[in-house]
Amino acid sequence: MILPHIAHAKNPVAFRWRLLAAVALLAGGAAAPGATIENDTFWKDTAGHLIFSQGGGMLKVNGTYYWYGVNYPGAASYAGSSNTGLGFGFRSVTCYSSTDLAHWKFEGDALARDQVGSGWFGRLGVVYHPKTKKYVMIAQGNGPQRGGSGQYFATSDTPTGPFKFNNVQNVSSMFVNGGTGDQTTFQDDDGKAYVIASNVKGRSHLYVAPLRESDFLAIDSAKEIASGTGREGNCMFKYNGRYYFCSSDLHGWNASPTHVISATNILGPYGKEFLMAKSDLDFSHVTQTGFFFTVNGTRQTTVIFAGDRWCDFGGNGIGYNQWVPLSFDKDQPIFNSMSQWEIDAKTGEWKVGLGNNYILNPSFEADRTAQRALAGWTNTHSAGADPNGNTRKGESHSGNYAMQQKGKAAYTASMEQNITLPNGIYTLSAWVKSSGGQNMAVIGVKDFGGADKSVSLAKPMGAWTEFSLPDIRVTAGKCQVTISSDAQAGNWIEVDDLSLVNSEGLKASQNRLPAK
To answer: Is 246 helix (H, G, I), strand (E, B) or coil?
Structure first.
């Protein structure tokens, strides 16, 4: 059985959730091997081309999943160099199909730009109307050629398109400040469909907006279900008869924990907002809430969180799409952050992948800004340590940030992450730069059932250098990864892109890499 990472518990409530998550993952861990989902990379389709699909949704038709999202200008060059802006312009709505949720065939552009005109177009979803036998795409748009801002509706006879423009609906009278903020679609078990949204300009009001039942080509009304704090990335899933309205913080394109309100009736009343358990440990695997979809398997129902990683806008790391399964403690959803996992689309069962990286927030991109306390980590430091020294922007090994220990006076500093994982042989690795000259500077692992292991970083390294600690034989079902310094004024180390991976999984991953 494979247990999830459980970070250091700062309080009993947090520890309870992490323990419950471990128990929940045991249930998921019973799965037979299935298709492997790899996060923290740019995904490719079955033809070997990059997948361009953001701000979209999923629709299942006769055993096939159809995934819709936007292709933004600059996406391809950004994936290649990480120096090109993604851009806000609309290129097309793409459609990909899969039966196993890991291998995606490009079906083509489901909606071409000439159907909506220039300007913003996105935050879309597709639903099916059984009486009209039409697939209906609903999205935000502001193309002047089609009548300006509003809800855009397009239809197709097939799930792959091409979708043709139908109408633009002005919804200014239904939503505060004249329109929707981030939105997605949700189609219930009874076939009724809804737009899930916040309001534009402030986004402090949350709505469930039923689509016109006769054809889904207009919003009938907008039911405000909550108000208060600004939210975006709004989306919904249903589990065991309960509706979960989920959102991100109002951080623009940045990563966020997942906020949840739930109800037994889709129109409410909804309960008090809470954080999805474990989503705060690495800010929902360094994503913004995108959409959810449910695998109703023969043995298990699994809800999948599909997060958008807006790399360029938020500096949130590698890859545009990050998917993980949810677990549940009664009616409380639990976020399972993983870099690799397996799903059986027929049975609905899933398990952690052998090549999973058990370190949370390993590239220090979750926190958005330079700061001392980092998501997923616990740190201590003396008075001499630089108050802004735990993240550094601009010279990271990947993404925007790296962990840094430095001081203007003599100092000590330590950063730890406590990890629960199955017994086995692991390799710890990290990329490091160092000024050298420290009394002590190490990265190491302990409390795993054997003698402590570490490697010294107290030597000058002006370029990023990879360090590895192989043959970590975990017999205690846990370990602690530590980065520590005892240094003089002006000494520093920078650490980025850590990984703690089962050695067999690491070897298999390396064998899959193309020869140089």
So the answer is: strand
